[in-house]
Amino acid sequence: MFRPVKLFAALLKWPIWPLLKYKIVPEHPVTELALDPGRPLFYICATESAADFAAIRQICAKLGLPDPAADVSLHGSLHPRTLFLEKPHSLLFKRGHTHALAQGQALLQAHLADPALNAQLVPVALLWGRAPGKENSIKWLLGEAHAPNWLAKLLIVLISGRHTLVRFSRAVSLQQMAAQFGASETTAHKLLRMSRFHFYRQRLAATGPKLVNRAQLFNALLAAPALKKAIDDEAKSKRITVKAARQEARKLLLEIAADYRASTLRVGDRVLRWLWNKLYKGIKVNNADMLRELAQKGHEIVYVPCHRSHMDYLLLSYVIYQQGLAPPHIAAGINLNFWPAGPIFRRGGAFFIRRSFSGNKLYSAVFREYLCQLFSKGYSVKYYTEGGRSRTGRLLQPKTGMLAMTLQSMLRGIERPVTLVPVYLGYEHVMEVNTYLRELKGSGKQKESVWGVLKAIRNLRDYGYGYVNFGEPITLNTYLSQQVPDWKHSIHPLEVQKPQWLNPLVGSLADHIMQRINQAAALNSINLLALCLLATERHTMARSELTQQLAFYLQLQRAVPYHQQVSVPEESASELIDHALSLQKVQQHNDSFGALISLSDDNAILLSYYRNNILHLFILPAIIASAILHQRSVSQQQLNAVMQQLYPILQQELFIELSSPELYCNAVLQHLVDTGLAVQQQGGYCAPPQHSQAFSMLSLLAHNAEHSLQRYAMVLQLIQTQGPQSRAELEKHSHQLAQRLLSLHGITAPEYYDKQLFATLLNALKDKGYTQTDEHSRVSATPRLAQLNDTIAGLLRSEVLQSIHSIVPASDD
What we know:
Layout lengths: L2 H9 L1 H4 L5 E4 L3 H4 L8 E7 L2 H14 L7 E4 L2 E4 L1 E5 L13 H14 L6 E9 L9 H6 L6 H11 L3 E5 L3 E2 H8 L3 H23 L6 H9 L2 H14 L3 H15 L5 H18 L2 E5 L1 H9 L3 E6 L5 H12 L6 E5 L7 H7 L2 E4 L7 H17 L3 E2 L18 H10 L7 E10 L5 H8 L9 H9 L6 E6 L3 E2 H8 L18 H18 L5 H9 L6 E3 H17 L13 H10 L4 E5 L2 E5 L2 H30 L5 H19 L6 H14 L4 E3 L2 E3 L6 H11 L2 H16 L3 E2 H19 L9 H13 L3 E3 L4 E4 L1 H11 L4 H10 L6
Parallel strand pairs: 1-7, 2-5, 2-6, 9-15, 10-13, 10-14, 11-12, 11-13
Antiparallel strand pairs: 3-4, 6-7, 6-8, 14-15, 14-16, 17-19, 18-19, 20-21, 22-24, 23-24
Helix pairs in contact: 1-4, 5-8, 5-9, 11-12, 11-17, 12-17, 13-15, 17-18, 23-24, 23-26, 26-27, 26-29, 27-28, 27-32, 30-31, 30-33, 30-34, 31-32, 31-34
């Protein structure tokens, strides 16, 4: 039926070869899309183009898929394997129609006659170049138009052939469609209509919406009613003319707005591919299929990743681009707007945000209007709810400003569903980790500059693997409907809305995002080795014992997973150790008794950062181990009581979220029994014999909770013994006590230097009713605090408790 296309495609096979370089998404379509080689397979494509057909034939041959040019025999009748939705435009003649309607109906009729056929119809989208084009652009009309003529296609192949994206989608079940809708011409029309819409969504997801001219965008923003009101208010408050206030608003837009360029993305793709090959052994991506599905359904995607490093900006955008999706506009700190990085980031989609909006109503209005415009135009956006990079490796308490503005944008009447995608970013080496501890100890934050970039480039080396895990998405429309059923009554297309429910809902949503980031954590060789070695007194273990402990942690996360989205290494414990040795994170020494694995003093401090990345996955098992270890016998009811007290505090500090903490802890306890790390006796559980390997492994597990419990014990002792004191005094004294313990016990954990952790703990104690505030805003204990203090004391080593009590003596009451 399309013999001329087959002929021209065959002739183009070799001429097109040097012009074609493509990215296939997903990378392994047969396995990732669950294509069944035992069932008949057909393709459906957008345009009947010889260049497209030649490229698809070449790609299918590489993947080992059936030849698109071959016919398929169904009960003695031959059917073309490929359906084309429409013909390209013609330079001289009227555009004709393809035979897709007749082909589709014939296939449906064959399945209606024999339901056992169950052929697979696979949509294949071919995008020559990924430039979104510009609104009202002649270039877009020539080079990016839908179904271009042969001359325009020639230009496209020559210019964009080496930036081609090929997207295979999940197969449509022709048997199911025939059974449900029949095999009439109407059903065939329905099939083609669904396919057209599918390809439209594919293109939109891969390129993003067409770009708006920057000057036109600024004029439209300045004419928005909310911003015009803010300009008038600025003129009145500062006693300047409206023209001057408008000019100030335009300057702010120039400071904030991105200058998105497709050419920058293409160059950036090549540079970053080189950079990742230089820096990392590979980038491991998990749950990206969910992301592509959201984009295909037309969701407005807002990426909300954790923030470990400046590399986050580049890594996540690169991964999104490699997944066949348009890179997002990125909210970047104004500190990164230095030459030459600032202009490059801006052309890559970065828009710059000041650390604080306070006292500048015009800036707030300009930024809010710009963000709302991005959403209304359909651009995906990325911002960091933590506000800055974590210096300790734990997630920071979220900043809610960007989230609030996202919800306010929804209240302007965005039609598409808006979905937040939490993203866990993990590294086996964070480039800035050496500076983080110095900053926590009080040295000033180093200002970003071109010299810092050049120094970082000079030190590039193998940093192991990077990890990008996409967490469970949160569709804001659904979330709002659950929390505030009548939220749509607050929608106003012109004015900024601040309903009473906004602030508390934003706070709850921010915590929910952080919990889902942690649910998608990535275990790797470095953070797992840090978990083991930092629990030892001299940061040294026999390799055989280390292998056994690592294997136990891997087994624990597989048998009793914290969450299904946590990624666990496929390598064995021994292979993980060899990998860490190759990265020079640990050292191996041999003596007559065997190999020893150890950390240098410097690496012991740095590796605590990586341990903190995954501490939330092991904190509850560690507390269970502490209870078993420090008490002669403990019942399951007693353990559950301990968890009921500590879980709410840990949840607020470490962003833990379990559907049933009690069931999870009971499963962990049973696993400890099954592996011999706990002994079940009549009426309770106890530790194995002290000389046994199991006792040593239980001790190492328990140590992972020790630093957190010590900090809790410090603060509780101060509150209980020192009487009412101001919040500032309490935070100061807690920090001073932590420094004393650092000296007495040689503790090197960076969180002891982080004043914010003490502030978070005080908030949790207040929220859970352990403390109260008097009329002078002083913090004092409630009767419940003594019980919590006793519980924590029962989980700590006696020498640590003695140090705390000697520094802060108990009251005589």
